[in-house]
Amino acid sequence: MSTCDSKLLVRPVEIRDAESITVLLEEVISDGRFTIMESAGTVDDQISFIRGLPVRSSYVAAVSESRILGIQDVLPFSEEPALLHVGEISTFVAARAHRSGVGRALAAETFERAKACGFRKLRANIRKDNKAALAYYRSLGFETVGVAREHARVDGKYLDEVITECFLR
Ligand SMILES: CC(C)(COP(=O)(O)OP(=O)(O)OC[C@H]1O[C@@H](n2cnc3c(N)ncnc32)[C@H](O)[C@@H]1OP(=O)(O)O)[C@@H](O)C(=O)NCCC(=O)NCCS
Description:
Blueprint: E1 2-3, E2 8-12, H1 18-31, H2 43-51, E3 58-64, E4 67-76, E5 86-93, H3 102-116, E6 121-127, H4 131-139, E7 143-154, E8 157-167
Parallel strand pairs: 5-6
Antiparallel strand pairs: 1-2, 2-3, 3-4, 4-5, 6-8, 7-8
Bound molecules: coenzyme A.
């Protein structure tokens, strides 16, 4: 576990977080600008997700005064033996906490956990129009390795996705 300031704690997600996480995801998705996800799913879906996490994975929450401000997960990119060293990362921070170091604190914990899981590099797919996320991942050391054109169809529009990756040292 790590702390960014005296109030912020980054710790593994627990089952009791499922409702808060669902609300957070609904907030981010309903904004419409950040993710290709169309639904946060139900609280039960989130509970199933937490319970079903692979052994080689990381799922952490940034918590301040008992409120979840952000979440970040790393899941195996593939179960194909040749690709076991690659993890796929996702990050969601509540709008009220943007640009206050929550994402950076999540990543500090996630990177250590991902290394401990045996991942050697992380990959993030980011909507090309999501400038904040592109800047965030760049600030963590992610580099663009390509653009998947018209990769996602959201609200009837085809969107490009930027493929980025970062080696864990
Ligand atoms: C992208 C996101 C995770 C960043 O989280 P955050 O907690 O706001 O980021 P931090 O405050 O830790 O910022 C870390 C660094 O990222 C960069 N950064 C983050 N947001 C930025 C923005 N809007 N513009 C420019 N740079 C930005 C900066 O370099 C920043 O460091 P600085 O503040 O010292 O300059 C957050 O905006 C978010 O959850 N957005 C909605 C969901 C989303 O887009 N997820 C990613 C989907 S791929």
